[in-house]
Amino acid sequence: MCGIAGIVAPAAHDDAHRLRSVERMLTSIAHRGPDESLSTSSGPAHFGTVRLALVDKPTSRQPMADDAGRYLLSFNGEVYNFAELRSQLSGLGHSFRTAGDTEVVLHSLMEWGTDAFARFRGQFAIAFWDDERRRLLLGRDRLGIVPLFWTRTPADELVFASEVKAFADAGLRTPMSLPDIVDAGVLWGLHPGRTAFHGVSSVPAGSFVASHEGRETVTRYWSFAFADQRDDRPVDDQAKELLGLLTAAVERRVPQYGDPAVLLSGGLDSSAVLAALRAIRPEQQIDSFSIQFTQDGLNEAPFQAMVSEHFGTRHDAIVCDDEAVARALELITRHAELPLMRTAPGSSIALAERIKHSGSRAVLSGEGADELFCGYDVFKVASIRDQWSADPDSPAFARLLEKALAHQEQLGRGAGRAFYERGLEQHDDPVFSHLHRWSAAFRITQYLAEPLREQVSLEGTLEGVRERLPESFHGWSTVERAQYLEATYFLGTSLLATQCDRPFMAQSVECRYPFLDEDVIDFALTLPESSKLHELNEKLVLKEAVRDQLPPAVTERVKQPYTAPEGGVFRSPTGLALLEQYLSPDAVADTEVFDPRRVAWLIDKTQRSRTSFHDDLALVWILSTQMLVQTYGFADANADLRRGTA
């Protein structure tokens, strides 16, 4: 992938100054593209790209203009079906001077306009300028794998970039936004199009923003929606089709240069990706990379070793303890640009650094399977609570929950019956599947400074979700509604940023996601719920698809969520130093976001005894928010927050 940045002014004047601003923005995101940095102008549009060249290294330089100079493109990502599109465009009279996907993207937008976005198969963020129409298009892939942010300045310029940190180099102030800080902590994600920064928008996943004559319109070209007509074939037939689609998706994502590599957790999803890769590359060297933890309950090293040996990979792993995770927290928070809820992104960026030094520039990941095929516990809980709400006096459902979530105890994340009973009587609430979880998470707001606590409410936070739900959502089952919420909030705005794009691109390593392939997604959305979650058996159809390829110990494993050390991190030497630097009473009082007395109580509890899951969650959220606020400031709703380009 790459990094892109640009400024579109109301008219072409002071162009050299704006182009220098774009070049400074590129410097701040140079980690996304260490191979080349270029910028250019077309009328009032000034584009720049830092390039991580994984396709057509010699010729696909960016920003790229058409021969007539009407159009200009900055492109970040990969379009895997570019050869097919190129053939179609050639038949329509287009000629090409390069062999890569960038020029195909350019000509696709020239030929088909905004209809081109739905034709692209891949992971991408695009800025496209039409100088004759004076129109800018900003577009992203279906799930929002590749980031793209934009804002407007008081001088009426539109500024865009792959990462928010670049805006400071365009002279913009982007302070943190209270409602979005709260959403990030309570919902574990943001509303589509929102960011944690006041005045900064994200191009929503599966959408494009058209900017013309100072106005922007957002159009969705794809939606996460279950098919009206479901696949009623036997699971075995569905599994065969899924295996074929997954194998094709893996093949599309094998890098053009170097040996292929896989992130290997030892769980079903990454092992399935590796199985597909080995099937299409039976003789080629394959590298696998893993994270291991010193805590037995979190460590999956035996399964990683088993799968690596089974497929004959050249395996490498890092070992993370409390101290290692603590050392990574500042760096990952700076790159994530979002308040964190868990420490897992810290170990991800540590692994990305190891991969970078190995020489690999692209790795395949199993992310996305849990949301598509009901891998997370939240889906089991939703199913059981759905039945429980119809018979709340029955003791059977509490026992069923205890059985379904027994593995959580060894992770220190067990919760009592009262937690799961919360909101049971609110079955008609559209967000019923997440009510207990979000209600419990809202307790983190008790640590906000008093004036800010008065500005937020649980009901207000939940209503923000409800009012954005699509009409079709109301016709889905409780589990399918949970899938939508996980895909839209957790996957789309949090996980893909904090554990995927940002930690790996911070080390100039591109992650690719076969489970987020368009054909795999479309297929998953046609499956009935029973093919994914069968009683308490998660990802049934995926297990059947790869049962003959994987060791039985892997296919029979209960899903173990990727969890890094949490409470102990803040009792390590670096963890204690971070608490002193960012959460001392003076530091907390200085930012005016949190209540110094309450934060001190939480820290004291952390250091005196074992903390709960929600205590750990609160401390990570507070610490990462403080880190970001010290860098970006905090929004005053009545202030003029932007200064325009410098």
TrEMBL record:
One Pfam family matching this protein: GATase_7
GO biological process: asparagine biosynthetic process
GO MF annotation terms: asparagine synthase (glutamine-hydrolyzing) activity; ATP binding
UniProt keyword terms in alphabetical order: Amino-acid biosynthesis, Asparagine biosynthesis, ATP-binding, Glutamine amidotransferase, Ligase, Nucleotide-binding
UniProt-listed InterPro entries: Asn_synth_AEB, Asn_synthase, ASN_synthetase/amidase, AsnB_N, GATase_2_dom, Ntn_hydrolases_N, Rossmann-like_a/b/a_fold
Active site: C2
Domain of life: Bacteria
Keyword Nucleotidyltransferase: no
Catalytic activity: L-aspartate + L-glutamine + ATP + H2O = L-asparagine + L-glutamate + AMP + diphosphate + H(+)
Catalytic EC class: ligase
EC numbers for this chain: 6.3.5.4
Positions with a binding annotation for L-glutamine: D101
Residue ranges constituting the Glutamine amidotransferase type-2 domain according to the UniProt record: 2-214
Protein residues bound to ATP: L263, I291, S365, G366
Similarity-based family: Belongs to the asparagine synthetase family.
UniProt-listed NCBIfam families: asn_synth_AEB (TIGR01536)
Protein name as annotated: asparagine synthase (glutamine-hydrolyzing)
Organism encoding this protein: Aeromicrobium tamlense
Underlying gene: asnB
